[in-house]
Amino acid sequence: MKSDGRALIYMGNDGVSQNLLETLQLNDWHVKQTSNIDEAKQTMREHKLHVGLIELTCQHTESYLSQIQEMLQQYFQMEWIALVHSETGLNSSLKHIIAESFSDFHTLPVDPGHLLANVGHAYGMAKMKWDTVNIPDETDGLEQEMVGSSQQIQNLFANIRKVAGVSAPVLITGESGTGKELTAHAIHERSKCANGPFITVNCGAIPHSLIQSELFGYEKGAFTGANHKKLGHFEAAHKGSIFLDEVGDLPLDQQINLLRFLQEGTIQRVGGNEQIPVDVRIIAATHINLEQAVKTGKMREDLYYRLNVLQLCTPPLRKRPGDIELLAHYFFKKFSHEKNKTVKGFSSACLAVMRDYAWEGNVRELVNRIRHAMVMCENRLISAEDLGIDESSHHFHFMSLKEAKDRAEREAILNALARMHNNVTLTAKTLKVSRVTLYRLIEKHRININD
Length: 451
Known about the structure:
- The protein is 43% helix and 14% strand.
- It has helices at 14-25, 37-46, 62-74, 92-101, 112-130, 151-164, 180-189, 211-216, 233-236, 255-264, 290-295, 301-307, 324-334, 348-356, 362-376, 401-419, 424-431, 435-444, and strands at 2-3, 7-11, 30-34, 47-48, 51-56, 79-84, 104-107, 170-173, 198-202, 240-245, 266-267, 276-277, 280-286, 310-313, 345-346, 381-382.
- The longest helix has 19 residues, at 112-130.
- The two termini are 16 Å apart.
- Residues 137-144 have low confidence and may be disordered.
- Residues 146-375 form the Sigma-54 factor interaction domain.
- This is Response regulatory protein.
């Protein structure tokens, strides 16, 4: 997909497009003109676009409007503006789809000043989604659910890249359901052992009596029933990575064997005497506080420091509310083959509730509720009730004053930059701040002004 700078797509009839094209092209917009939904989808697959303009009339059928709404759900990263011929002549179907799926509307005939303001604002809003968001496609495999544009998730991505290039052990901390295993996969796939195996071990799921033989293997005749030699998880991960999930659940008396491997790089199979060298990257994860476990005697202090050379923390979903809509649309698309055919997406009211909900089960809970709603919802758009969220419950996270201020500040800067075509001097004058202050705020909010 290629980037076309300040580009947008227009879908409608040629009579409207002539004045529209002239107005936009005179102001340095590149317009991709299409006449139907299939052409529009093909254009959006080939070009990285930020804004879409769609002409809507009362002559459009319910079926056509439904297809429009489905297309807008698919290309949710873009901002969409409806072009209507009369604000007072809109029927209920048009009013509904505009309110639910479009960020703005413009009444024809074209008012150049008003249109350019609408498009500029939409462009600035869309860049917030495009420039920092991580939206993997269907071929990205194990990292598919690592979706987001928030500062917290961007920091995690940056730290993954840092730790992937070295061989030191990594400890991933975070609440259940925040994507610790996905983070481990991402580290492995960017490391020098990416072509080797990635072995996952849930330390809390192995019976106490089998831990040593499962991790390190055993020799033939080591115990009754050991009729042949078996390699353990560590040897299976040779030249690759081993992910020790819930390492804090490893019994205290079994931790010495893991410590010995970290110190010496060798393992000894149960029933054997040979020290076998194994080349493997250790990535461990836990949802408990291991420092507290050390203090209470449940974790060896020397093992803790051996594991905790590099530490990453996966942020809880309630700390990244700006990612919730992106995740919702992503999982809706991912599981679309499971949904009721009448379901086309989420209502705006539902998305607002989702942003404020506390998500104690994090991304895992989000996926569970969305998949349930996609099957059980009987309407075109999923509601909070379909997700099983009780709006009267206490499970809501409300934005702090600082979070609200930061969000408003970033949006104001993006809007001003879009109106001033990324001219920093004019943007600073518009916002009534110095250029130095504006550059500091641009850096603070990680805004890309090079596009």
